[in-house]
Amino acid sequence: MIVGQQKKFDEIWEMVKGFRKVMVLGCNTCIAVCHAGGDKEADALASMLKIKAANEKVSMDVSHGAIQRQCENEFFTPVLEDLAKYDLVLSIACGVGVNFLSARIGKTPVYPGVNTQFFGGVPKPGFFEELCGGCGSCVLNLTGGICPIARCSKSLMNGPCGGTNKGKCEVSQDIDCAWFLIVERMKQLGTLEKLFEVQPPRDWSGSFHGGPRRVVVEHLRDIEEKQ
Ligand code: SF4
Ligand code: SF4
After folding, report:
1. What is the pLDDT of residues 75-109, one digit of tens each?
2. Domain with CATH 3.40.50.2300 in the chain
3. How far is ligand 2, taken at its centre, from the CA of residue 156, in Å?
4. Residue 210 has what pLDDT?
């Protein structure tokens, strides 16, 4: 899932205080799971903005709502016309949602209420950890299912640096050394010898270093073109 955190309220207020008619729009998928931008958070944030506006004697009409996903047309189609009537949409989806809506809503600005951070898992309630960097060419088959790109502080591909210390990363004792985890996991799987195979130089062109990426699912595109 995509993980993010709601921006500090003071920062949000600075963004929105000049607008009269504001819609706080949540997204009920990833960002709702990490308690940053679902319908409950949209409701709470809208209430905070109303109170702040009243305290500051600023005339502001604040509404709130949420759709299931802010990254797909089908969820925006029923609400887009209505959203375009606001002076500002404060989206508390991830940055994908803000980009996606900005390209469709016309003259209404869409501002981000969330800082989008990473692709992660939820090992226990309220705890999110980065597990994948979206590199475009997955090597987890070679590293025991542990990502050296997202989980090693230096994204090292060839084994640990000299700072690895009793399973911890030199960057912080709170961070497990990814390469320690990789070695231990590969020992457990009986595949440690794979680490001695020399890999060809990695092609990073499929990562974000190669510019914005697109994925086309051919059979879905063919269906669309026939309609
Ligand atoms: S190797 Fe790439 S695709 Fe695979 S988990 Fe790591 S960042 Fe994600
Ligand atoms: S100590 Fe481990 S996780 Fe930290 S930078 Fe070095 S190899 Fe990467």
Report:
1. 999 999 999 999 999 999 999 999 999 999 999 99
2. 2-118
3. 7
4. 83
- For residue 108, the SS3 value is coil
Quote the ligand 2 centre to 161 CA distance (angstroms).
6
Closest atom of ligand 2 to 164 CA is: 1
Regarding the beta carbon of 48 and ligand 1, being less than 6 Å apart is answered: no
CATH classification for the domain delimited by 2-118, as one of 3.60.10.10, 3.40.50.920, 3.40.50.2300, 3.40.630.30: 3.40.50.2300
Cβ of 182 closer than 6 Å to ligand 2, yes or no, is: no
Q: Which of 129, 125, 113, 128 is nearest to 6 (CA)?
A: 113
Closest CA to 114 of 177, 42, 168: 42
**For residue 28, what are the contacts with CB-CB under 8 A and spacing of at least 6?**
38, 39, 66, 67, 68, 69
**Closest to 127 (Cα-Cα) out of 33, 41, 55, 42:** 33
Is ligand 1 within 6 A of the CB of residue 132? yes
pTM of structure: 0.91
State in Å: Cα 94 to ligand 2 middle.
29
Ligand nearest to the CA of 132: 1
Q: Give the model's confidence band at 35: pLDDT under 50 very low, under 70 low, under 90 confident, else very high.
A: very high
128, 121 Cβ separation under 8 angstroms = yes
**From CA 47, how far away is CA 39, in angstroms rounded?**
12
